[in-house]
């Protein structure tokens, strides 16, 4: 379900059309979603949705209708994938409360450039599939009409749910990889070694689990949780989660690449997970070594 304020209808309708073309079942009010009483139609849309995408702007936050719609979705525990449209602005009040801790998709420059729009659209599709791909009946992507003979058609995506989140370091291009091997020398906590890998593989995927104001990341192969020892400045994995395995996943708002850049921050220590000279370390302040891409 796409939830938006009317000033952004043209952009949202473009996104709606592309999501439909790529095989995703989508609800939008002006595309047959509203029949009869508008409140009843909005309620029905929320009740049938497995995910709702609020297109966040100051105007969206000020809209009573948008507030009513998203609050109803929140009370029904519909999963929220926020989309940010406004630069240099953060959601607050009721909207900030609902979207706190959620990873939003960056559409702030999507209207200026078609290539940027395509990258933003892919990010939105990937985030939707990551969260609720197992609940959606994804159809085969529809063929697109060619606008110009000389302009090649963009490749159609193959929308499939990935086993978890993959984290690729922006500078070194290395992946976070659970080796499944005990740390050397062994520790009393039965910790395993987490390494950096040049190639993506099953050991590089991490299932995201919600904690108390944090996220846990459990490796899909070893079933061990990604952790950080802020005293030894070491990354490890453990069989069960504790405060060492509590993380915050934040959008990197300094990034201009539109490649789903994120910051991985350790909740307990406040350290930013970084890579330098091919090794993990935790930094007390952000720099480019702290940037990761979701894959």
From TrEMBL:
Listed SUPFAM superfamilies: Toll/Interleukin receptor TIR domain
Region ranges (Disordered): 141-165
Domain of life where this protein originates: Eukaryota
Domain TIR: from-to ranges: 1-115
Cited InterPro entries: TIR_dom, Toll_tir_struct_dom_sf
One GO-annotated biological process of the protein: signal transduction
PANTHER family xrefs: ARMADILLO-TYPE FOLD-RELATED, TIR DOMAIN-CONTAINING PROTEIN
Name of the molecule in the record: TIR domain-containing protein
């Amino acid at each position: 379900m796409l939830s938006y304020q009317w000033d952004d209808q043209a952009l949202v309708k473009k996104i709606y059309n592309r999501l439909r073309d790529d095989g995703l079942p989508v609800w939008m009010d002006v595309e047959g979603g509203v029949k009869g009483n508008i409140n009843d139609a909005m309620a029905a849309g929320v009740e049938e949705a497995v995910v709702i995408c609020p297109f966040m702007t100051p105007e969206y936050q000020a809209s009573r209708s948008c507030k009513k719609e998203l609050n109803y979705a929140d009370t029904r525990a519909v999963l929220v994938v926020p989309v940010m449209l406004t630069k240099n602005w953060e959601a607050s009040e009721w909207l900030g409360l609902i979207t706190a801790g959620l990873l939003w998709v960056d559409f702030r420059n999507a209207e200026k450039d078609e290539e940027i729009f395509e990258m933003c659209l892919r990010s939105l599709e990937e985030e939707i599939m990551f969260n609720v791909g197992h609940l959606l009946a994804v159809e085969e992507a529809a063929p697109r009409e060619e606008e110009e003979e000389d302009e090649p058609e963009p490749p159609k995506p193959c929308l499939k749910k990935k086993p978890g989140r993959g984290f690729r370091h922006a500078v070194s291009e290395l992946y976070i990889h659970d080796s499944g091997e005990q740390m050397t020398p062994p520790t009393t906590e039965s910790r395993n070694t987490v390494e950096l890998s040049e190639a993506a593989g099953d050991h590089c995927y991490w299932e995201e689990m919600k904690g108390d104001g944090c996220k846990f990341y459990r490796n899909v192969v070893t079933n061990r949780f990604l952790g950080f020892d802020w005293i030894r400045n070491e990354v490890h994995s453990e069989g069960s989660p504790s405060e060492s395995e509590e993380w915050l996943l934040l959008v990197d708002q300094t990034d201009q690449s539109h490649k789903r850049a994120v910051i991985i921050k350790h909740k307990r220590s406040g350290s930013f997970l970084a890579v330098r000279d091919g090794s993990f370390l935790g930094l007390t302040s952000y720099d480019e070594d702290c940037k990761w891409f979701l894959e």
